[in-house]
Structures are given as structure tokens and as C-alpha cells.
Write a structure and sequence with these properties.
CATH topology of the largest domain: D-Maltodextrin-Binding Protein, domain 2
Organism: Gluconacetobacter azotocaptans
Keywords: DNA-binding, Transcription, Transcription regulation
Number of domains: 3
InterPro entries: LysR-type_TF_proteobact-type, LysR_HTH_N, LysR_subst-bd, WH-like_DNA-bd_sf, WH_DNA-bd_sf
CATH class of the largest domain: Alpha Beta
CATH architecture of the largest domain: 3-Layer(aba) Sandwich
Protein name: LysR family transcriptional regulator
Number of helices: 9
Family: Belongs to the LysR transcriptional regulatory family.
Distance between the termini: 52 Å
Length: 306
Amino acid sequence: MNVFQAMATFVAVVETGSMTAAAERCGISSTMVGNYIRLLEERLGSSLLRRTTRRQNLTAFGAVYFEKCREILSLLDEADRMAEAAQTLPGGTLRVTAPVTYGTESLTPCLADYLLQHPSVDVDLVLTERSVDLTEEKFDAAIRLGTPEPSTLVCRRLGEYRMTLCASPDYLARRGEPFTPDQLPAHDALAFPYPASSPMHWGRREWRLEGPKGKVAIEMRSRAVMNNTQALRKATVAGMGIAMLPADLVRDDVRTGRLRSLLPEYVLPSRPVYILYHKDRYSSPTLRSFVNFVVASLGGVSTQMR
């Protein structure tokens, strides 16, 4: 016997006043209604209804059981609604990983709006330069710089990670401003030690630019090498030299005059930015809402790496 169906049938009998009306409400026959009531009474070992030729009344136990049945069925309906909502509304904890500078300067400012739109979602953001394993380390999504290695992960492009050459007004006042790439070697370079596996591995020993005369590579002597972009930015603001820094990182410095962009006719190499996730997890409303939000906020074209 389906106990919940029997309870619902019993409640219908009481609320409608007859087995015939209860049968119509429940979409079953009057005989089935009678069977449910009989089986329920046998299961409980007590009568629920006093039956007469004209009407049915609740027994003392039946009245108490009726209220409990209504309470239980109400809770069951609430649980069903919660389960349905879980399939359609974002909620729970979302684990995301991103590179330190991009995550700090580009992704984090977007998260406030996302969390306002989805109050039932919590975000666990891990910033690291390491390429984490999404499955092994239980991440829902990862943001990566550069073209991802072939895999079964879905990759959606978020735009370009652009660099800029910049220096402080104080440094330029002391050393002069370079207006062509061939003037750069006379200046103090501040460099980031990109690993050999990075597409920017050349950044420690030379700067590559593209401008009116095509691509040029300028060999530089690094006056200082720092493995943290925030430290490199602070050194540049302090007037230690010229640095190649992420455009997002120094945007406010350039706008307020703490730093000045150099060689505006030349473009530094950029790297594509991707968000990666497992295809089968995209059905989750939480992950789907986050991916769609980030793509809309930071731009994007969908592709799958093979």
C-alpha cells in the first residue's frame, strides 16, 4: 500500500464529506477509496471513520490522525517544491579557480553582482597560478590564461588578457620617455619571471611589440625581477623602472596618473582567457548561471577543446 496515497485519500474523504466526492478529487474509483481507508485502518489497528447509512464521522482517533495527515502531506508537498526548485534555481557552494591577477582584478569585481542576483549561492574562489584538476580537486569551473590543452572540458572564451608598458611620471622625468622601441634598452626594466612553459617565457629577457613597422623584439636588461605582479606594480609606481604589466592591473593607476602608458602605437602580445568546466555538470543551474554570467560580463565564444 502507498501510505502517502492512502493518507491523501483519507484527507479527501474528510474534506469532501463522502467517498464518492473523494474518488472524484483523487481520480480513482469509489471502491479504491474504500480499499485505501480499510487498509489504512488495518495498518493502524484503529478505526478512523464511523460509517452510517447517511454519512461518515471521524472517530476521536480519526480526528487526531486527520490533522497529522494534513501536516505530513503539507510537508511532503513542501519537500517536492524544494526538490523542484533545486532543479531550476541556483544554490549551494560554487568552487572556482582562477589566476591570481586576473581573478583579483577582473573576476572578483563581477562576483558582487552575481551574488546579488543569486542570494542562495556561495562562492569558494581559489586564486592560484597552478592548473588545478577540476575533478580531483572538486572545482566546478576554472579560468585559464592561454589556449587550454586538449581535453574533454568545455572551454568558453572570455576575451583577451592584455599587457601594457608603463612607468611612473617620476621615473620618466628622471630618465626621459621612450617614443620608439629602440629607445627601451637604455631604460631600467622590471620583469616577471615567466616559467619556460608559459607562452610569455620570453618576457624576462626581451619585450615583443607590434606596431607601424611590424613585429619587433627588444632585448632588455632586467634591473629587477619579481615573481608577483602586485609587487611589480608597486615597484613601477615607486619609479624603479619600466614594466610590462596586465592592463587590468594598472587601469586605475593610468587613469589617476600614477602611471603612464608608453608607446601607444605599439601593441604587446596578449593571451586568450577561457572558462573551463565539465560538460555534464553544465546542467546544474548553479554552474550554468555562473558560466552564463561570466561570459556575459567578460565576453565569450563557445568551443570545445579536443
